[in-house]
């Protein structure tokens, strides 16, 4: 059996995992849950949005003294692998909405931070497994940004780094995993295409990754139709993503995990 820590930024992104495995009895108020499925035991962790929140939660779970609400983790606890899941934004016209992607490596918008490689053995196995089930999954380079890329111009600027998709958490979780010597894997689904004009959610995001509900309401009231379209796109994306998770979670992929390394 492999022991895997699964990180999601929000409860909605973690929800497909909890649907696949009934975790009601082991879930805590913080959203953390202990799950068993197939070859694997998972610790599902809802970490919050943005790099700062993601790193803090990763340190709670993977640091030298792991502390997660509702779980008494041994000091020497070390999972076999880390899996980051959730939504991402496309930086390429070849990656449409609902396309599932697996990161080969991950960049940061901070130029002083090195690129990080994901576990090639697990990623390649995931790609082969999903292909065998007729589920398209593209290997990509991801980039983690502290801000939501709102316009096409902002997305193209990120693409010039060599990245194909953008998210707000993966790099920091992978960085903590790398520091701890734990292989990392990122599996996400595209919720907004290169052409999608996002709402400026940056106005509602606090530095700690929580959402200012008042600012969010103001955004929604100002552009209700756009918000409806974005929510519908996210729902479609998560529906497709759940199909991939149903294949991946019970598999023996994580038994192939190899130590992480910088690119």
Write a compact overview of the structure shown.
The protein is of the alpha/beta class. The protein has helices spanning 11-20, 51-62, 120-132, 152-159, 170-179, 213-222, 224-248, and strands at residues 2-8, 33-37, 40-46, 81-90, 100-108, 116-117, 137-144, 165-167, 184-192, 261-262.
Describe this structure in words.
The protein is an alpha/beta fold and 263 residues long. Helices cover 33% and strands 24% of the residues. The protein is built from 7 helices and 10 strands. Strands 4-8-7-5-9 form a 5-stranded mixed beta barrel, surrounded by 4 helices. A hairpin with a 2-residue loop joins β2 and β3 (40-46). α1 runs parallel beside α7 (224-248), α2 (51-62) runs parallel beside α5 and α6 crosses α7 (224-248).
In the CATH hierarchy, the architecture is: 3-Layer(aba) Sandwich
Q: How would you write the strand order of the largest sheet?
A: 4-8-7-5-9
Q: Kindly provide the radius of gyration, computed on alpha-carbon positions and rounded to a whole number of angstroms.
A: 17 Å
Distance between the termini: 29 Å
What best-fitting shape do the alpha-carbon axes yield?
globular
Query: Which secondary-structure class do the elements indicate?
Result: alpha/beta
**What percentage of residues falls in helices of 4 or more residues?**
25-40%
The CATH topology: Rossmann fold
Question: In CATH, what is the homologous superfamily?
Answer: Nucleoside phosphorylase domain
Mean pLDDT: 88
User: How many domains make up the 3D coordinates?
Assistant: 1
Report the strand count. Answer: 10
Number of helices: 7
Give the biggest sheet.
5 strands, mixed, barrel
CATH class designation: Alpha Beta
Beta-strand residue fraction: 15-25%
pLDDT < 50 stretches: none
The helix-strand sequence is EHEEHEEEHEHEHEHHE
